[in-house]
Amino acid sequence: MKSKKGGSQLAQLRSGLREAGVTTHKPKKGKSNEAGDRVGPYRKEQRRKRLETLMTSLNAFEQRTSHHKNDVLGRKVKGTTGRPGASKSNAIQVRRDKLLPELDARHRSSSFVDRRFGEYNPNLSLEDKMLQRFTSERQNRTNKASLFDLNDDEDSGAGPGLTHYGQSLSGLDAMPDVMHEDDDQDNIDSYQTQQHFAGFEEGHAERNKNDVMKEIIAKSKLAKAERQKAKDADDEMRMELDEELGDIRSLLYTRPNPELEEDEQQPKQAEASNDDQNDAYDAFVREMAYERRAKPQDRLKSAEELEAEQAKKLRDAEADRLRRMHGDRASPEQDLDDEVHAEHMQEAPMTARSRFGLGMSLDEQRENVSEDDDDDDPSRSEQESGTESGAESGTELDDGESDAQDAQPEFDYSQDSSSEHSAYDSEGAVEETAPGRNRSLVRTEEVPTLPYTFPCPTTHDGLLDILEEHQVQASQLNTVVSRIRTLHAPNLHENNPEKLQRFLGVLIDHLLYRASQCKNSEHDAEMVYLNDLLLHIAELTRLYPARSAEHFVAKFAMMQRNLTRGLSHDPLQPDARTWPALPELCLLRAASMVWPTSDRWHPCSTPLALLMAQYLAHARIRCLEDLASALFVCSLCVSNQRESKRLLPEVINVLYSICAILLPKIRVRGKLPAKQLAEQFGIPTPDLYANHTENLAITKDATPVTPLCLVSLLRHAPDTAQTRADLLQATLELQESLATMYTNSPAFVEIFTPVAFLWEVGAAELSKSAPILSGRLSSSANKLRAGLEHAVDSRRALRLQAHRAVSLTSYAPKFDQQGFDPKRAMDPDAERAQNAKLRALLKKERKGAIRELRKDSQFVAEVREQRRAEEDAQYQRKMQKITHGLQEERSEEKQQERAKATLRKRAGQSRS
């Protein structure tokens, strides 16, 4: 029977209950219903589900349906029906299961804090942690147990003891006159026991902590004495074995007697041949006997320790020298050491350490010790007479001098030159010597003895005073500087870095000073000693680059002021200081060797390049010395730019001018092709075919010298054909170096076309007067012309594009397939549309999060309101219960009062 669709809610409910088979009355319990008890839970679950379904169908607001405008048959769309009530109840249940426990536990802290000793100390191992914990626990137990221990002494126990009027009671036991009284019933017995010396009957007293510790200490001393006794016995046995070792070794080294009979030797030989293992063991023992005893070595030392050790050695050597100088008597051991050291210095070759005055290295000292040991042992010297002691130890230099000497190039003056026009004034780069005072280094055949310690000079005059005071030769200058640097190493004192920085400027000044003396000297060999100064300058520059750059830039500024002053007057005057002299050229060369010249921007290399370019661009050529100085500067520029290969227009122009000046005056059809070519390519040649350079042209043939030594030309350039030929040869080599360096340059053709033409014309002009130079020019011109032709052939001329034309990008309009809707956002930019979608999604998620947070707060508020209502109701019930109890008690009291009043009334009536 189906339920009625119409009717009231009650009629529909009854109809639904009948259809679902749900009845409200319970059947009577009997034997027939015992089987139904076993399926009771299943029936209850089915009944609950049917009731839920029935309530859902009867409640019109329990299910919400969303209708589409156009329904499609056969298509199922999710989300058309919803149950807001069930969703709300599920959300509340989820919050009750998850949010409510968190709310209740927000003020609870169930984290366990491990406060065990060393648990968070990573430096302690597990064994250390357990040992510390055990020790701490035992100490705590001992302190707590001994706090009220009456048997413990004051000194051994920790904590307060029993006192009486401020005095400890622990000392009463030691007093002989104090008698311990027992109870009243035992007074006589204790007194008689004490008076009749009956104390032997008492048992052993309980020992305190002091007695226990004394017993432990006694046992420890006894065990230590026993171990020492055993050790002494072992030492005695070992000494006895050492005394008998000689006899044992004699038995090992015993050789067969040749006088024995053959029949006696044959059994021994047969027995030895049968026992191979014993032979191998005997051979091994003999090898061990012949081995050299190992020598103990010093530990590895740091750089600071080595510097301090070297400084101490120099101070000790200086003290010995002063003692010998004053004639003080030394100990025999020191005299013997000096004699041995002198013999060793005579026999040993000159090394870098001996040259610097630093004595023997560690390896040499170890070799000397080993040789002494060998000399002391005659048997070992006889056994090792045929062997050599070992290879010689390598030389050592302090402060990295050996490394710097290998890394830094030396001065090469074979292609360097300078002019002799250098008048030094107050702003000159080199100081003049004071009149009447000879500051030159001593040049005597006898080498003077140098002290081992020197003060660190802060000025150049101070250095000259030191050199003059001790009569230092040029060959000893490196030793003096090395000892100054060793004694004032940066790690030995906090003021030493500042001293060394000032000493670096002093060395630069002395480099210029020595170069000026070499310019006036006739000995070219003294230029070699400038390499030693350059080595120290390079080392100090590595330590203090900023201060070194300041010193070099200051010198460059002086040179630039001298050039400007010379150009402001008449630059063609012979006494005008335009081209750099030998000292300034040495400074430029030193800066090029110390600093990196391939950097695009550098605090020292950039001013150096600008200064040399200014020399080449503005200085005028007047004589052969000027040509030598210009070639020196050009060679520096070429060597500096060999790595970076930057274009040097000043060098190219100056070399072209020098080559044109040295070549004879060339006329072709009444014109000067060299001059016209320079004007055509924009090469400035103010000194070409001028009156002051007409006498510099080559008129005779000569064989050029290779390599060219420009040191003599810096002092004085003789006006000979050989000098001109040498200068022309150097010019051609520099131009060839530039051609090789700029081979891959796009402007190679434009740069070297005038040079090739000049060489060809010059070779044709010198073909009669100087055939040797003409052949040299012809060969160079042919090589350069071949390179120019190859460069021209490798060039690609500009042309139109050879590929197919690329069509223009068309932007076709995008039509909306859904139709235009002004309410719908439509953005043609895909990226902007994607960003708008992300912003909309972010806004939606934010609103959803805010909604959920509001629901959470609402749920929390409802829970708190329910709990508050429950607490209020519980409080009301409690108060009502108390009030009810009080009312009952009061009513009982009133009933009793009324009963008593009734009894009294009845008693009064009965009496009356």
Describe the structure.
The protein has 912 residues and is mainly alpha-helical. Helices cover 58% and strands 1% of the residues. The chain is built from 30 helices and 4 strands. The protein has helices at 9-20, 40-58, 84-104, 126-145, 187-195, 209-243, 245-252, 262-274, 276-290, 303-326, 332-347, 352-356, 362-376, 378-383, 401-407, 460-469, 477-487, 496-520, 530-543, 545-568, 582-594, 605-618, 624-640, 649-662, 673-681, 711-715, 721-741, 748-765, 771-794, 830-911, and strands at 64-65, 81-82, 163-164, 167-168. The strands form 2 sheets. A two-stranded antiparallel sheet has the order 1-2. A two-stranded antiparallel sheet has the order 3-4. Strand 3 (163-164) and strand 4 (167-168) form a beta hairpin. The radius of gyration is 57 Å and the shape is flat. One of its GO terms (biological process) is maturation of SSU-rRNA. Involved in nucleolar processing of pre-18S ribosomal RNA. Has a role in the nuclear export of 40S pre-ribosomal subunit to the cytoplasm. Keywords: Nucleus, Ribosome biogenesis, rRNA processing.
What brief labels describe this structure?
single chain; 912 residues; mainly alpha; two-stranded antiparallel sheet; 30 helices; 1% strand
Instruction: Tell me about the largest β-sheet.
Output: 2 strands, antiparallel
Overall SS class = mainly alpha
Helical fraction equals: 55-70%
**Mean pLDDT score:** 75
Name the poorly predicted regions. 152-159, 176-188, 197-202, 335-367, 369-445
Which range does the strand content fall in? under 5%
